[in-house]
Amino acid sequence: KATFFMIGKNITSSTSSNITRDAASGSLDGNHSWDHAQLSKLSAKDIASELSRTDSAIVAAGGVSSGLVRPPYGAWNDDVRNVAAKRGEAIILWNVDSEDWKSLDAKKTTSTVVNNVSAGSIVLMHSIYASTVKAVPDIVHQLRSKGYTLVTVTQL
Fold first, then answer.
1. Do 69 and 20 share a structural domain?
2. In which element (H, E) is residue 57 found?
3. For residue 57, is it within any domain?
4. C-alpha distances in Å from residue 53, one per residue of 57, 63, 114, 148
5. Is residue 20 in some structural domain?
6. Which GO-annotated molecular functions does the record name (predicted)?
7. What pLDDT, in 10s, does the model give residues 1-37?
8. Which of 1, 49, 113, 140 lies deepest, with the highest CB count within 10 Å?
9. How many CB atoms lie within 10 A of CB 44?
10. Whether 70 and 102 share a structural domain
């Protein structure tokens, strides 16, 4: 299981099956903004629009609004926190960065994650990179062999 934070504008008819698959597997889809804008640089009205549009896209694709927001770049401020709170959403960050975007190397990504995880870790990975997708089965295998159980953010 995992929590996937979705960019709303990337949810299309060709990607909506990922959302229904996530729901069926017990994984969650969270909100990662409409177009990956740095929310902390937007007005409260624009922040609300980014989050609302993405939630609507997730629901339209067959998913469920999880009430979870991961601000792009991990950048948030009082406006982002207040808008999320008014919407009943929790801001979720991470404590293990796979740095998959730096190396684009599956073995390096696997090593970075496996060597930095501890109980309760939230791992940042990006499914847009083929190397990350390739790394996932090995990461899951190694973490499970070390006794970890993979859960969604709400199950932590």
1. yes
2. helix 44-60
3. yes
4. 6, 14, 35, 35
5. yes
6. hydrolase activity, acting on carbon-nitrogen (but not peptide) bonds; metal ion binding
7. 899 999 999 999 888 888 988 888 889 999 999 999 9
8. 113
9. 14
10. no
3-state secondary structure of 104: coil
Domain that holds residue 143: 94-148
- Structural domain contains residue 156: no
In degrees rounded to 5, what are phi and psi of residue 31? -100, 125
Whether residue 3 is found in the same domain as residue 33: yes
CA distance 89 to 68: 5
Pair type for strands 68-69 and 3-6: unpaired
- How many domains does the chain divide into? 2
Task: Let me know: does 63 contact 29? Beta carbons within 8 Å.
Answer: yes
Handedness of CA 55, 58, 59, 63 (dihedral sign): negative
Q: Is-contact 61 85, C-beta < 8 A? A: no
pLDDT digits (tens, 9 = 90+) for 115-139: 999 999 999 999 999 999 999 999 9
